[in-house]
Structure formats: C-alpha cells, structure tokens
Amino acid sequence: MVTILFHSTIFGPVHSRRLGTSLGVNLSPVDGKVCSFDCVYCEAGYNSQGTGKSGLPSREDVARQLESKLKEMSAAGEPLDVITFSGNGEPTMHPDFEGVIDDTLALRDRYYPGAKVSVLCNSTRLDREGVVNGLRKVDNCILKLDSALTPTMRLIDQPVSKTFTCEYVIPQLEAFGDKCIIQTMMLRGNHDGKHIDNTTPGEVDALIEAYKRIKPREVMLYSIDRATPESDLQKVEREELESIACRMRDAGITVQVS
Length: 258
Ligand code: SF4
Known about the structure:
Layout: E1 10-16, E2 20-26, H1 59-75, E3 82-86, H2 97-111, E4 116-121, H3 129-137, E5 140-144, H4 150-157, H5 166-176, E6 180-185, E7 187-191, E8 194-197, H6 201-214, E9 218-222, E10 233-235, H7 238-250, E11 255-257
Parallel strand pairs: 2-3, 3-4, 4-5, 5-6, 6-9, 9-11
Antiparallel strand pairs: 1-2, 7-8, 7-10
Helix pairs in contact: 1-2, 2-3
Residues 35, 37-39, 42, 44, 89-90, 122 line the site of iron/sulfur cluster (SF4).
C-alpha cells in the first residue's frame, strides 16, 4: 500500500501549480494519518496504516515551528506566495484548529504580509463552530466536493461516518458561498469490486447543480497526479478536464483546471 507521509509539521516550501510557492503545515501526526475520509486516491495512503505514535502537534508547537521557518526564509530573502494547510490528514480535526489559524495569520502578517493562507479541507466538519470560524478567516478556504451524488461520493471518499451524505454537506457548503473555493477530483477506476466514475454526464450535471447552489468563488477541477493507494484508478487527462470545465462554464460557473 502507498503511504507517502510528511514527516514534519512544517514542510517545504514547494512549488505547486495550483498555489504557487507554498509552505506546508501538517496538523496531523508526523508518523501516521488522521482523516475523517479515506479517499481511494489519497496521496498519504489509507487510514488503515494507523495514526502513528507522535500524536497531533500542539498549537504552541505549530506556532513555534512556523515562526522559526518564516524567520529563516525571510532572512534568506526567499519568496512565499502561500502558507497551505494540508499534510497527513484533515487539518480541521485538530482540536485547536481556530487557534492555530489565528496564530498563523498573525505570523503571516509579521513575516510575509503579502502571502495568502490556504486550507485544504474535506468538508466533513462544517457542523463545528470553531472549524467554520477558522475557515472563514483564511484567504483561500478550499472545500472538497468530489461528487454531488452520495453513492459516488461514498465510493470515492469513503467517509468514516456512516451517515455523511451530499444532502448533509451541500447546504453547509452553501453557507460559505463565495467565501470558499470548491475542489473536485475527477477520476475513473475500480475499488472493492465497484466501478467509480464521476465524469459521466449525470455526475457532471449533479455537480453543476450543486455548484449553482453553493455559488463558490471558483471551482478547481483536477485529477490524479501521484501514486494512489487504490492502484486501479485512471487519471482524467487535461483535455477531458477542460471539456468538462467548458460545460460548467456554460452554466455560469468559474472553473480552473489544474
Ligand atoms: S480528505 Fe484528503 S487527507 Fe483525507 S483521505 Fe481524502 S485526500 Fe486523504
């Protein structure tokens, strides 16, 4: 099984097509994965690898390590476009998520006032006040919606909660409206004897209806880029992503393909 973990709380900076020069913050353990989804395409591998022994970093540790890295980069004259929360799991599962965001925004203002703060979030915890508050403060709140049809979403994302549905999450995404960017992974393949394909006309129509309800700032469409824990998955090539994006744009949605 593929298990490519980030072995530190602060990682990078790395250059990302989507986000520019990005310094990563991993609020999950440095030796395991903690996520409320178990996506078939997760670059960190499946949840079954375990949560490791290190535990979640404390709010204080995150601030200390981030400040030390920002100080070092600033002294060296290194550029920075964005501080991105991603890593070995779901950042909003950190119990001090809102506090970590407050610290990060203060450090950003001190060392790199022109940089953005982005959070890649799987949208499973939008029913928690601290999570919503934290997400509303950042520049780029990037929320996952891989399918607007619950059976497909459950095949792709494998939520840990048996009751998590699109009907539950879409109204929560609507509450963010243009304060959020929706990120959708397009893919085809097979997992556990079931076929997965969120590129069919029916899937795209359902996504368009959901985006029209949510009214996000923009939609980011992307596909598989690296090794996935389920090996029987196919990347959707850029040309096809662009043609799906065209249909969405025709419906009035701002779409970026990456
Ligand atoms: S939500 Fe992100 S971290 Fe969690 S399983 Fe999916 S891809 Fe991996």
